[in-house]
Structures are given as C-alpha cells and as structure tokens.
Amino acid sequence: MERQPRKLFHFHGGVRLDEHKAESNASPIRPMPLLARYVVPLRQHIGTPARALVCVGDTVLRGQVIGAAEGYVSTAVHAPTSGRVTAIEPRAVPHPSGLYDLAVVIEADGEDRAVDPRPLDWPHMDPSALRNRIREMGLAGLGGAVFPSYIKLNPGAPREGAGAIHTLILNGAECEPWITCDDRLMRERAGEVLQGARIMAHMLGVRRILVGVETNKPEALAALRQAADEVTEIVAVPARYPGGGGKQLTYTLTGVEVPAGGLSTDVGIQVFNVGTAYGLYRAVVQGEPLVSRIVTVTGHVARPGNYEARIGTCIHDLLAAAGGCLEGANGEIVGGPMMGFELMDRDAPVTKAVNCVIVKSPVLFPPKPEALPCFRCGACAQACPVQLQPFEMYWYSRTRDFGKAQAYKLFDCIECGCCSYVCPSHIPLVDFFRFAKSEIWERERENQAADQARARHEFRTFRLEREKQEKAEKFAKAAAAAKAKAAAGDPADPEAAKKKAILDAALARAAKAKEEMAAAGIAPKNVDNLPPRVEKEIAEIETRRARVPHPGQEDPHD
Amino acid sequence: MNGSPFTLLANNSVSAVMLKVMAALIPGIIAHAWFFGPGIWVSLLLCSALGIGLETLALLMRARPLGPALKDGSVLVTAWLLALSLPTLAPWWLYALGMLFAVVVAKHLYGGFGQNPFNPAMVAYAALIVSFPVYMTQWPAPVGVAPHGVGLGEALDLVFAGQGGISPDAYTAATALDTWKTQIRMGKPVADILALPAFGWGGGRAQELVALMYLFGGLLLLANRVITWHIPVAFLSGLALTASLLHAMNPAQHAGPVLHLLSGGAMLGAFFIATDPVSAASTPRGKLIFAGLAGLITVLIRNFGGYPDGVAFAILLMNVAAPFIDAYTQPRVFGHKPGREDRT
Ligand code: SF4
Ligand code: SF4
Questions:
Q1: Residue contact A375–B12, C-beta within 8 A
Q2: Is B43 on the interface with A (CB under 8 A)?
Q3: Domains of chain A: which residue ranges?
Q4: From the candidates A20, A265, A377, which should be mutated to test the interface with B, based on the most B CB atoms within 10 A?
Q5: Average pLDDT over residues A418-430
Q6: pLDDT above 60 for B162
Q7: Run of H or E residues at A89
Q8: Is the pLDDT of residue A332 over 70?
Q9: Å from A378 to nearest chain B CA?
Q10: Is there a contact between B343 and A407 (Cβ–Cβ < 8 Å)?
C-alpha cells in the first residue's frame, strides 16, 4: 500500500557519523549457549531496585520472579535459567561509576526448565490488570533508558494541560554507530515487533503508529513495510545523529517539540524502542517474562554480530561467544561510541540496558588529542541538537560558575556528544557538562539537607515554646480551679494535683526526646501504612524525579 | 575523566581551521602580488617570522608550553591579516611594532589564544594608524600606474634598509578612499574624481580585483564551513545599505555602495576579520547585529571620520559590544517557548 511520503522535520544540528554498522549486521542473531552461571542485578531499570524474593540455596526456574517490583517506578527481575541461587551480594554491574550493586547469582543446572508460560488475553483484559502483569514480566525500555514500561503504557492521567495520547512512535532509528541489534531485530522479527506495537497502541488507546527507522537500514524498512497494517506507518528518517533521540525522532516525524523538562506524552505522543515492543510481544502473546535481549558485540572481536543473550550473562562470556577479543584490544564500550561508557569490569553482566558492547583498539578508537583553548568557533553550537551554546556552558562549568551554566540551559543538554565530536580544540565538553550537573545536584542535596535541618530546628523551637505556654496556661487554670475549689470549701485534692503535675512533666519530657531524635535525623516512622492516595502521590513524585535526566540515564533511544 | 564520545571528527583541529583560513587568503594574496608587485611576500614573511618569534617569547614569559600554542597556527593567521592590512614596502619596524601589539598586547596580555576580546590584527592596525598616520597611507600604486615598479630586491631594500634611494612618491599613490576624501574636501565634482587613476571600474584601481579574490576566498571558507554566512552577509549588507542611503541623500558628497564594497578593507574585513570567532558575536542573530553594525560604522567612519578606512575601528568597536549582543540574542533552546527567557 503506497502512501504519500510523510513530511519530515529537520531538527537543528546533529552530526553525520561513520556508521560502522556493516561489521555486525551481516549475520543473523545468534543465540548464546547456556552458561554455567548468571549474575542478575536487582537494579536494572530506572527507579527503585527490585526486592529479592529468593534466598541463597533456593532453586529457581527460568522466568521465575527473583526480584519483585518495589514501589511505583520499578519492575520485576527474573531468573534467566533454572538452577540454584548461590549468592545475593554486590557484584560488578555495567555502570560508568564501576560501583558494585546487589545481584542474584544463579548456578545453572543445565536443564533450563521454565515456569509455565502465561500468555495473556490482552484484547479482553482489564487495562490495569494488564499493566500489572507487564510490571511483573519485567518490561523496561530496551533502548537503554530502561524506564519501566508499564508506567508508559498507562494512557490515563495526562499531566495538567496535556491532552490524551494520540500517537505511538516506535523508535527503530538506531542512530548510534556500531549498534545493530535493533536493525537485526527489525529485519528478522518485524511481525513480532509490530504485534508488540499493536498491543501498545491498544493499551494507550491510540489509532496511529509511526515507526521511525533511519534510511541506512533498507532491509529493516522493507521487512517492517511487509508486516505493517493500515494504522502503522513505516517512515524512513535521515541518518543523522542523534536522530534516534526520543525528542529528536518525535520532532522529525511530527514537527512537535516536546517541551523542555517535559515528556512526549505532554504533547500526546508516546515513544517506545522497537526492542521494547518485541519484549512486550514476548511477554503478552507468548507469556514469557523478559529474560533475554539482543546485544551487539562488535569492534575488535573475532566474530562481531548480534547475540541473543540472557539477562545476567557476564560480558566476558559474551565476548567469548563472539570469538574473543583480537590482539591489541584495549577495553570495551558499553552502548554506542557517542553516549556509551567504558566498561570497568568484564564480570559485569548484560542487563536490560545493555544493547551493545564494542571492543576498542587504538586503531578503531584513537586516543584523543590534547585539548586546546576554546576559541568560540561555534562548531559545537552548530552541532547541538538542542540548540544550546555549549562553549558558554563549558566556560561557566570550567570556572565553576554553575548558576551561569544553568542559565545557559545546562539541564537541557542530553549529553549526546555532538559538541565534543566536532570541537576542533578537542575539548571534552560533555565531561564538563556531566561534572557540572553532578556538582549542581550535590549542592542541591546539601541545600535540601540544610533546609530540612533548619526547618526541623525552627519547628522544634516553636513546639517547645508552645508547650511551655500550654503548660503555663494549664498550670494557671489548675491553680485557678484549685483556688475556686478551695474557695468553694471543697476539700482540696493536693494528691491529684501533684499526680497531674508529674504526668505533665513526663509527657513534656517524652515530647522533648522525640524532638531531639528528629533533630538528630532519626525520623519517626511516619511513612509506613499510608493511605493509597498518599502512596500514589509519592509514586508520582518519584516518577517526576525519574524524569530528571541523570548521567547515563537519559538516552537518545528512549 | 575520559567519557563519551569515544570518537572525534577526523582531520579536525585548530591548526586545520587556521590552515583553511590561510589557504582561503591565497587567491587574494596572489592578486595582490600580481597587481601591486612582490612587496607583499616580504611583509607576509616578515610578519610570520615575527609572529612565531613573539609568540614563543610571550609563551616563555608566561611559562606556558610552546608546542600546542605554536602548532595551532593562530599566530600565522594574525600575521597574515596584519601584513595584508598594512601598506606593503613600509619599514620593517612598522611591521615589528604591529606584531608586537598584536601578539603580545592584544593576545597574550589578555590570556592568549581564545581569550582576546579584540581582534589582534585590528588592534595593531589601529595602534599604528594612530601613531604613524603617514606611513600607514603610503600604499604602493598598482603596477603600471606607478612611475616606478618595485621588484623583489628593491622591496627587500625598502623594508629593511630604509627608503634611501627612491622617493615614496615614485611607487606609492593615495588609495581610492583616500583620494575620494581629499578631493571631495577640495570640492571637486564626483565625475572628475572618479576619472582619476586611483579609481578602476568599481573600486580602487586593481584593488577591486584583489577585493573580488578575497570574496572568492571567503566563499571557500563558507563552502568549507569554517565560517557561517551571517557575518559576511550582514557586514557587506550593513556597509552597502548605509553607503547607498548616504549616497542617495547626497551623491556629491558620499560614494556609492560599489566603491565602498570594492575598496579598502571591506572584503577582507567581511570574510576574514569580522569573522574572527574569538572576538565576534557568536549567536546567529548576534552575528547579524554585530556585523551589520560593523558595516554601518565602517561607512560612517569613512564618510565622516578622519581616517580613510573604517573597517578596523568598526570591528574593534563591535568587539566591545559582542558579549552583550550575545547575552541578548541567545537562540531559543529546543522545547522552550519563544520569547523572553531568564537572562544571564
Ligand atoms: S567547538 Fe570547541 S573551540 Fe569551538 S566554540 Fe565549541 S568548545 Fe569552543
Ligand atoms: S552534549 Fe549537550 S551540549 Fe553537547 S551537543 Fe549534545 S545536547 Fe548539545
């Protein structure tokens, strides 16, 4: 079915990059062999880590929930194969910081027995029940942002001023060089991807699906077109980095700018990665939770390609499956070369966020030349897709004038790396922006803590004052009453008055102790057993927080 | 920190940018040598050598590493721009003083490459024209117009050994802008003035062709994305519009836009000097304002001021305003509403 070609919109800036897609997209997705051990971190998504449901020594089945979603912004974590839990302890995880994080270590029994799949009757299910099941299936954005999918599949409660969601965008742009996992997925499993998109459309109540794929993936475009129905439009978008950024793709396809600090749903659009759509298909139609994903292994390895790896596969196993690193390899990048990060430990496992591992070599990734001063050439500003003035932000970040850096909209920076890429002075601009952002957060945290302490102190002074007054009043009243009684000839009750005074004093002491505890930061537990309304509010606040981009969390693949 | 991105644009460096600028100057330089004799090579070489020497000296005095700063090539661009702005065949110390102003005062006293609020070559030009107005107006006449053509050997003599043998009158002539100014003051009719040998078909004789070659080089810079269109277009438009307006008001007094465009430092200024990113405005709208006003001021100085050309002063004046212009012309950031936003 031929359509009018869609009018596309041109976002500012961006860069053309050497694609390096051919290295890994020539051969079909290869399944990984079953391994002896898997390391499954409990924090694989944005939000609250999952809560471990198993203990050391437990036996588990593939697809069994081993970590339950905790709180609103959270999703479940599953065992990737059958076996025994041998440890629940901090392990290396793929994170730029190189810090360890709590993970469930599973020794495989080699039988790979699974829990019974539970396909869902999605067209007829209650939407909220369906979302809950998806939460239990562990779905999170597989483009790298790993935001729990069930939340994004809720059509209700648009934010103030925003209308209902009318368009679903499926992001298959895959604009970062080297990465081809979405490309292969779309080529090989286009029907399943679009089936997943239809479930998303159904859940969101939208009637229009746009699938954006960069023109450099003709096979994927053809496969998707073959599988598309009349509500689904497959759109070839220009290959210009970061054209696969959620907001950039939305703009390219619709000409609508997602407001700064907002979400695409504010303008009635929801964006999912194609991998997430495929994962949703597997979860809903086949009833299998998210226990594997496709990972591109490329660069300086013997057999670059795409591997279907179970979540928890250690990256050294993944590299081994790809034939091992070649002579002269000097490290790995997790993610793409523009926004990825250096892997600190090959023991770190594949998580839901890991879409690509690139093995570096000095030839493929030459060391960066020494930085020279900025001469305001403006190349960075011309390349910035957000239309920032990176050299101004750089100047103020470097001089630690963070207020000014923020005035130049530092927090609108998506850390896409275009500015660093084009800078003739080779200034690591994005490093400076990450540094400035983290410094500002740190200061805000400190300020908040100081504010809280001050508020607590003021409140305490106020309380003590009030109590003193109340006590004085009470005393005066009691004295007056006693006097009146005495005056009325009633036999006075000095015993009772004394008792009451002792009681009052004890109460005041208890109150004072409580205040002191609070001042010392020992909060009384008043966040337990909240009514659902308050809990929802907290959850909403958490979501809002999760939207604030954190280093390495905001991802162009959305 | 050594984070993403892990790849950088290939063949991209400050020295590559500076080389492109110098390459784009070459058509103009060749035209200059063709029409005005080989003296230009002497001043180019002299200024380059002085530039490297002074840069080294300044870096040593500031205890800065020599390698990166010398390799960036920026001092050569400054040297060439100054050599092209000063009259050729001037005594060597004029170039030396100029380079001293440009490199030591205008650049290193302000913190070196990337920190100078003013274009170094223009600072030097302004300092020299204020201090040595006579030398600064002795431009060689075009070959064929001058009674005496100066060869390379003679040029070296003139620059290094002083002007002993031949009188400057034998090889220099007032430039078109200069001639226009003095003749108008003397009350000569425009038609007679334009018939003088200083004038060609559009601008100064032969100068107009050099200007066109600068224009050509500037287009190369545009094509190579070393500069954006904003500054040259705004500068030349500001200049042409102001000239046209004044000319329309009083044609017996003010030259038309073509003469303004093709004489003096207009083309060199538009493409190579006003575009110096360090000292110019940097936002798209800011560049338009910056360069448009520079063009306007250039004509005002030429037509009403005491100096024959106004490009240098106009650009220096606008250099002062550039930070303010930038602050008030920040582009709308993606996802933000148009209109006033909190300013810095
Ligand atoms: S690209 Fe580099 S040198 Fe040019 S303005 Fe930006 S930061 Fe400065
Ligand atoms: S990293 Fe930030 S400042 Fe640099 S180009 Fe991307 S969005 Fe702009």
A1: no
A2: no
A3: 377-489, 494-547
A4: A377
A5: 96
A6: yes
A7: strand A83-92
A8: yes
A9: 7
A10: yes
The pLDDT confidence band at residue B128, using thresholds 50, 70 and 90, is very high
Contacts of A408 (CB under 8 A, 6+ apart): A388, A389, A392, A393, A396, B330, B344
Find where tokens 């994170």 sit: A95
pTM of the model: 0.85
Neighbours of A331 (CB within 10 A): 17
Q: Minimum mean pLDDT among A303-317, A398-412, B193-207: which range?
A: B193-207
Tokens of B282: 């940097």
Pocket of ligand 1 (CB under 6 A): A 374-380, 390-391, 394, 422-425, 427, 429
Task: Give the Cα separation of A530 and A494 in Å (integer).
Answer: 44
Residue of A nearest to B327 (CA): A408
- E strands, A157-207, are 167-172
Q: What mean pLDDT do residues A410-423 have? A: 95
Alpha helices in B162-206 (DSSP H): 176-185, 190-194
Is the Cβ of B65 closer than 8 Å to some Cβ of chain A?
Answer: no
> Average pLDDT of A260-279?
92
Question: Out of A336, A375, A431, whose CB is closest to B113?
Answer: A375
Which amino acid does the sequence have at A104? Answer: V
Smallest Cα–Cα separation from B43: which of B207, B159, B161, B217? Answer: B159
Tell me the chain A residues in contact with residue B344 when contact means C-beta distances shorter than 8 Å: 404, 407-408
A373 with B115: Cβ contact below 8 A: yes
The residue among B295, B306, B314, B312 whose CA lies nearest residue B102 is B312
C-alpha A428 – ligand 2 centre gap (Å) = 11
Total residues belonging to chain B: 344
For residue A69, give how far its alpha carbon lies from the nearest alpha carbon of chain B (Å): 31
- How many whole angstroms separate alpha carbon A325 and alpha carbon A401? 44
Q: Are B230 and B276 in contact (CB under 8 A)?
A: no
> In this prediction, what percent of chain A has a pLDDT beyond 90?
69
3-state secondary structure of A293: strand
Does ligand 2 lie within 6 Å of residue A413's CB atom?
yes
List CB contacts (< 8 A) between A261 and chain B. Answer: 335
> pLDDT tens for residues A132-144?
999 999 999 998 8
Query: A74: distance to nearest CA of chain B, Å?
Result: 28
Task: Give the integer Cα–Cα distance in Å for A557 and A91.
Answer: 27
